[in-house]
Structures are given as structure tokens and as C-alpha cells.
């Protein structure tokens, strides 16, 4: 396995109209939650604002004191596909954060690079005329804003600004452990989705806490004919191929959890091989895979279902009995496998006492 | 006996007589035919210009209705209104803007798409009644009748279906003229049939009807247009309803499911099923990710037999 990228390795390049297609394709190779409608609208939106292109820079190549902000979609992609953006949400969120902090943001970084979340920071960078940092705050996607390598590195998500489609702007400043609690009802009341600008920090800190090189990796992985595995900086394995037998509601294992959405359980019969019965426990993301009752993969590694026909990632809320899927496990960045990383993004963070 | 018809290339349609699911030598004319089942593809059919009304907020140019459609596809307006996925009104419906656009657009095929209509179709229905009053004889297609995905896809389906409407009307007229008095059905894309009435109203459901029928006929060992004609007879009326529902707890979800099932049963009868034969064949319920408790995408499919 080669190094996933370095900080301070020189200019990473530029995403212009020509590179956008590869970036778009790369961003969905392992992306769950990429409801088709929201994704295609984010891609069209990005294409319409990208102009001469957005510069992609390594965090270490920025002057140390340049302020960087993380930009992401929060809430539901289904809601984004239904309630269309007015167009100025990314800029409005960043400007609101600047207003709170004083001074301008000099670069945008993605919270994660899954589908829309790769594209909305690009829209923000294009709208603000600043570079996009080559890296992101997770190396995969997690359901909560605080589940990032930024937080693991000691950078708080707050102050955090939200911009909604109907012109709403909300700035949240609170203790790190109350961000989600405050954010979620706000997101719901502005229509189910919003663009957030959060984790303000200087480039010197960002270079220390981000998962580096992931933007340029997606650009490579999204080029036609490239193996899917290229998009997985820390390795990927196939758990099984099989057919979905059932999609069931789950009790959430009795845990008192404040995660968005309800848990569900997907049962897959392995075709060929041992014919194992594989159960996927999902809570927005698939958190745990059991094969004949034994745990074979779990968070913080990312577990995803790839449709056998077409090769797209199957959303948890689109999974249906009869679908043929390949279950793949993408290894998370090493920091997620440390003690604090497991506490923040491991199975216990999803209510599974493992 | 049922008559299967493939309306392929002119001049003349290919017909196959079917009794008990088996092709039989065609009798003189179609006397005694219980039904005529038509396979026709609508891709490449002439499209009428459409007046597209979207109910929602302002958006980037690239996301507006009819953007990317060829020149002459129609005219579009965005009017204030719509609902969020939780059913909250985003803004009161701008009824005056709807009336002005309807009166001034000079078209009679309308496609209406409101933000949030899979949850609450009130604003689409309200627009329809304003348009019907402002433009006598208007044909109005509402997006909430089309399932799935997001607003842009639903709007695209509604516009395309509306654009196919006049051509579908001519096809249905031609079939009715050729086989007078015989109930006509049209093969859906995918599987199943719909009545001529339903075909006129939602032609998009049959966009690839001949292709789907040909696949079924080919699987039964026939070839070419005869396969499509035979394939059209191999199926009964079918309809689908897709909604986003909000339900807190199992009891509310069950009630929402029953409502969706009632609706799809009504719809499959409207699609030509004998009322006693209509039944729900599949119900899927998926909780929506990253939304709070109790928002589900519900998809119900019903089938029936021709009378």
C-alpha cells in the first residue's frame, strides 16, 4: 500500500470543467447515502459554477495562518433532491462563520468526500474564489458532524454556521458534545438539509489533523477504467456477494442513541462460497456485518453494498429484497483505529456494545 | 380470445390472436375479441410543447425546469409555494402567478411539479384547478402521480408525459377506430398493462411498452413484432403508488400504508383491472436516512385482471 498522500507535496492541481467528471465519478465509488437526485443536482450545480476551475492545494502548502473552514451538506439527501438549493447556501454559510469570527476564510476543506459532500465544498470554493484543500475530515463518511479526524485532533466543530434553502442562516456556538443536539432540529426546520461551514482552523493545524490527499485520489480513481480500489487509500476487501433476502426494522439494540434516522437490518444470502447468511446492521450507515452470527466487519471501517448490475453503491434506504449486491469493506484511516478514534467512530459510537 | 397488437412501423399493425395464453390462428376480423392489448413504444414520438409550472423557491439557472431540453419544448415558470418533507408549507401558493402564466403561455399541455408533493400534493392539485379554470380544455399532468427520486426527476417525467399526451391520444383514437367497441389496453414499460383511458392520461407509463412486450414474447419463443403483439397480452393491469409518509409509531405507519394501498387499488382499477381482481402485490417501506423519526418512502404495486 502506497502512502495515501502527503502534506506539502506541491500544488495538487485544479478541478476545472475537464476534471469535474472524474471527480464526480470518484466521489461515488464508495459513497452511501448518495440518493441519485441530490447527487445529479449537486454535479450539475458544481458544473455551472466551476468556471475556470478551483485550485486544489495541499494543506501544508498554504501559509500556516490562512483560515480554513470545513464545508458540508448536513441532513438528508432526499430532502436536497426535493427542496432545491437557492444557490448561495455554501457562500452564505461561510460568510456567516466569517462574520462570527471576523476575517476571511482563505481555503475550504471537505468534511468528507462522499458524493454530494465532495461537490458542495467545491461549489463553496468556486463561489468564494478560494482553493479547495486536498484532503478531508474523515477519509470516509460518518453520520455525525463531530465524527471527524479534526475532532480527534482536538479541533472543535464550533462555531458552526448553517445556511438553508429558504435564506435561513443560523450560527451555533456550543460545547462540542452538544453540536448535533442543537443542529438537528435546526436542519429539520429549514427543510431537512442545509449547508454547514464549521471547524474553523488555520492551515497549520489543518495539515496536522486532516486525512491528506483524498481529493487528488478521487480525481485519479474517477478516471475511466480505473479500479475502484484506488479510491480506498487504506485498502478494501470484498466480504461476499449475495442476494438481499430481507430489510427489517431494528430495535436499535435497546441503546439510547441520538443518531439521525431509525436503525435497520439487512439480511443477505451469500451466493456461492459458504452460502453464509450475512446480516448488516445499519444506522444511516452500515455499522456491523455478521456472517452466520460472527462479526466480520464493523465501524470505523466502512461497509457498503455495491449493486451487482451497474456497480453503484446501494443506499441503505433503497435496499430491497431480491437485489444482488457485493458487500465491500473499506478500511478507515489509521487514526480511526486508535483508542480515541474507536470511541468516536467505532461500533460503540453507534450503540453496538462490541 | 384476446387480440395482441404491435403498433410498430407503419403501415399496418401486426396482430396475434391469443386464447388461454396461447397464440391461435386469427379469426376473421376481431369479432369476439374480449380485449385488444397494444404494444407501442413512444420513444421518438412527436412531443407537444409543454407549459411547465414548478412550485418552489428560486434556484440556480441550471436546475430550472426545461433547462437542457431542446428548443421548442415549451415554456416554464417557477411560482412560490410548496412543502418541506415534513409537510410544512414553505410559502403560500402564489395563485395569481399561476393564473397569469396559464393565461399567457398559449399552450394547453401542462405539467405541474410542487416541492414536497410526494408528501403533500395540495399545491399541485390547487395549481391544477387554477389552470383548468384559466385554460378551458387544458390537459394537466401532476408530478405526484410519478414516483420516485427527487423533484427534478419527477418534474422531468411529468413534462415528458404531458408532451407525449397528444400523440398518445391519437394512438388511442386509432386503436378505438380500428377495433370499435373492444376494450383496449396498452403494455407498460416493465410489466403489466393499463387501460386506454390511463394510457391517454399517463402515456409515460407505456413509453417502452413494445420493448417490454417484445421481451416477454421473445421469452415465449416468438420473434419480431409478433413477439411484441403476443407479449402485450401476457399481463394484467398494473399500477404503482410511491409516497413519502410521516408516521410516528407502528400504528401510524400501518394507517399510512393502508391509505397508500387503497390509493393503488383505486389506481389499478382506473388502469383497467376488474374491481374484484385488484390486489396489492408488493409493498416496500424504507426509512429515509438523516431525517428524524418517522419519515418513510412507501412504494406499493397492485395488479389485477382484465374484466
Give the SSE map.
The complex is a heterodimer of chains A (354) and B (307).
Chain A: E1 13-15, H1 17-26, H2 36-49, E2 54-57, E3 67-75, H3 77-82, H4 89-101, E4 107-110, H5 116-128, E5 132-136, H6 149-152, E6 160-163, E7 169-172, H7 179-189, E8 193-202, H8 203-209, E9 211-212, H9 214-221, E10 236-249, E11 264-270, E12 277-283, E13 285-291, E14 294-307, E15 324-330, H10 339-345
Parallel strand pairs in A: 2-5, 3-4, 4-5
Antiparallel strand pairs in A: 1-2, 3-8, 5-9, 6-7, 6-8, 10-11, 10-15, 11-12, 12-13, 13-14, 14-15
Chain B: E1 2-6, E2 14-19, E3 22-24, E4 35-39, E5 50-55, E6 74-79, H1 95-104, E7 109-114, H2 122-134, E8 139-142, H3 151-178, E9 184-187, E10 193-195, H4 196-201, H5 209-219, H6 224-233, E11 238-246, H7 250-270, E12 279-287, E13 295-303
Parallel strand pairs in B: 1-4, 4-9, 5-6, 5-7, 7-8
Antiparallel strand pairs in B: 1-2, 2-3, 9-10, 11-13, 12-13
Task: Give structural notes.
Chain A is of the alpha+beta class. Chain A has ten helices and 15 strands. In chain A, strands 1, 2, 3, 4, 5, 6, 7, 8 and 9 form a nine-stranded mixed β-sheet that branches. Chain A is globular, with a radius of gyration of 19 Å. Mean pLDDT of chain A is 89; it is low at 1-10 and 251-260. Among the domains of chain B are: 50-166; 238-303, Dna Ligase, domain 1. Chain B is 32% helix and 24% strand. In chain B, the strands form three sheets. A six-stranded mixed β-sheet of chain B has the order 3-2-1-4-9-10. Chain B has a four-stranded parallel β-sheet with strand order 6-5-7-8, with helices on both faces. Chain B has a three-stranded antiparallel β-sheet with strand order 11-13-12, covered by helices on one side. In chain B, helix 1 (95-104) packs across helix 2 (122-134) and helix 5 (209-219) crosses helix 6. Chain B is globular, with a radius of gyration of 20 Å. At the A-B interface, helix 2, helix 3 and helix 7 of A face helix 3 and strand 12 of B.
